[in-house]
Amino acid sequence: MVAFDEMRPEGAGLRQPYSSYESWLQTQDSSRLTEKMRDAEHVFRRTGITFAVYGEQEAAERLIPFDIVPRIISGAEWRRLTQGIEQRVQALNAFLDDIYHRQEILRAGRIPRELIAGNAAFLPEMIGVRPPAGVYTHIIGVDIVRTGENEFFVLEDNARTPSGVSYMIENRETMMQLFPELFQTIKVRPVENYPQLLRQSLSQVAPRSTKGTPTVAVLTPGSYNSAYFEHAFLADQMGVELVEGQDLRVVDGHVAMRTTQGYKQIDVLYRRVDDDFLDPLTFNPDSALGVPGIMDVYRAGNITIANAPGTGIADDKAIYSYMPEIIEFYTGRKAILGNIPTWRCSEADSLKYVLEHLDELVVKEVHGSGGYGMLVGPTSSKKEHETFAAKLKSKPTNYIAQPTLALSTCPILTEQGLAPRHVDLRPFVLVSDRIRIVPGGLTRVALKEGSLVVNSSQGGGTKDTWVLDD
User: Fold this and answer.
1) Which DSSP string do the residues of 295-306 spell out, in sequence order?
2) Pick from 291, 308, 398, 315: nearest CA to 125
3) Which of 282, 277, 243 is nearest to 263 (CA)?
4) What is the mean pLDDT of residues 354-372?
5) Is 177 left (phi over 0), alpha (psi -120 to 50) or beta?
6) Which has the minimum average pLDDT: 113-122, 239-248, 312-321, 453-462?
7) Measured between alpha carbons, how far is 198 from 431 in angstroms, rounded to an integer?
8) DSSP-assigned states of every residue in 266-329
9) How far is Cα 192 from Cα 433, in angstroms, rounded to an integer?
10) Average pLDDT over residues 430-452
11) Which of 207, 425, 378, 379 is nearest to 305 (CA)?
């Protein structure tokens, strides 16, 4: 498979979005660029931009590798992407509202009923509950891959607690620090106003009973969580409190946080805690991360929880395989952005095919994230294939499989100069009275030559994403 190179496609020369950057690059000394790479690492280390790697005793806190060569997207390309993302987000919210209320898509036979009823991410406690302003997914990260000049596909939807937006912002700030001259000559659309847009968006979905300016807070599981840097970063940038479950309690039918002046009512809680740990009285009784009784307050309409409990069903990878039908059902139009062909291992014929072609496919857990619990067939050993085959046979409903795509490449700076590496893109979407999509997103890059795994937990890095203002 020959991958499409976004800067220099094979046999086609330099692509137009990179023309101004290439002119600048030709004037740069390689030693200066290497020095700038070191400067970027110092900035990240000084800022404390790290993530935790679960299951590893040593080096549990890691610096996210950052590459200084930007990924550049033209304004026209971005417009097409945003149309597709907006359509998808509208459909996801309509789907969530439907399955927790009338379930028309199930009655119409467009999705198997058992795929919802037997799904751990579906919360019966949310049946009949409509969130303030009718918004379920307030913050969504849509993972997009590219395979050609005009070929974009959605790899997965992140509708629970999508992470990575702090890296998008820090990547841009670092680039502006290192190369201010580039931003004076190339018109790049801004991403640094995301925290203000997030605060504004969250405030707009406050409960109707809210008096005055809504009080917003960010709920974190604590400093040992892999994305704690981001929780603290966003709370700080929005100018709101960062709280843990122990800081909150239910007071007079509302959720309140402990302050030096006593308890203060919260109207909107941006939670980065999973459903199961949100309320020990409703979900996991052993949870010390959530707030006892918060679901009663939520059902009474006295707090907005972003994202709403139960949204995980929308980013389940088995549900993903039905997204073209879901989009058409709720919008009346074909999907603008395509899905990747997906085999549902819960179906006998699909399971048989997957087992016979493990060396060609990517196999994922339906609830998996962060690159954990997956098999990349072409780069795995025979023993790994055998181990995964046993997992598939013992619990087929837990897996889906997809073809190994030739993900597009972008150049990174190596000791030998520029070299292509595979990338994906996670644009961030905010939903309130309207849908806002920050121009760009987080580009994740597989730093190992030939690797298709871009997750930072699996050795990937990030780079700044430029959407040109043309």
Assistant:
1) HHHHHTTS-EEE
2) 308
3) 243
4) 82
5) alpha
6) 453-462
7) 9
8) -SEEEE-S-GGGT-TTTS-TT-SSS-TTHHHHHHTTS-EEESPTTGGGGG-HHHHTTHHHHHHH
9) 21
10) 93
11) 207
Q: Between residues 402 and 11, which one has the greater pLDDT?
A: 402
Phi and psi at 379, nearest 5°, equal: -110, 10
Q: 82: which residues sit within 8 A by CB, 6+ positions away?
A: 427, 437
Return the beta strands (E) in 176-276 as ranges: 216-219, 241-243, 248-251, 254-259, 262-265, 268-271
For residue 336, what are its two tokens? 């603008």
| Burial of residue 449 (number of CB atoms within 10 Å: 0-12, 13-18, 19+) | exposed
Quote the tokens at residue 377: 């067939």
At 94, which amino acid appears? A
Q: Residue 245's beta-bridge partner residues?
A: none
Cα separation of 295 and 7, whole Å? 49
Q: What percent of the chain has pLDDT over 90?
A: 79
Beta strands 151-158 and 338-339 are parallel
Q: How confident is the model at residue 61 (pLDDT cuts 50, 70, 90)?
A: low
pLDDT of residue 58: 47
Written as one letter, the residue type at 418 is: L
DSSP annotation string for 389-438: HHHHHH-GGGEEEEE-----EEEEEETTEEEEEEEEEE-EEEESSSEEE-
The answer to whether the Cα torsion of 433, 193, 92, 215 is positive or negative is: negative
Given the structure tokens 């101004």, which residue do they identify?
20
Burial class from Cβ neighbours inside 10 Å (0-12, 13-18, 19+) for residue 324 reads: middle
* Count of CA atoms in the C-beta half-sphere (13 A) of 239: 6
Which residue type, as a one-letter code, is found at position 138? H
Q: Tell me which residue has tokens 């009338």.
A: 102
171 Cβ contact partners less than 8 Å away, ≥ 6 residues apart: 66, 442, 462, 463, 464, 465
Pairing of strands 417-426, 361-365: unpaired
pLDDT of residue 406: 87
Half-sphere exposure of 275 (CA within 13 A, CB side): 16
Q: How far apart are the first and last CA of the chain?
A: 33
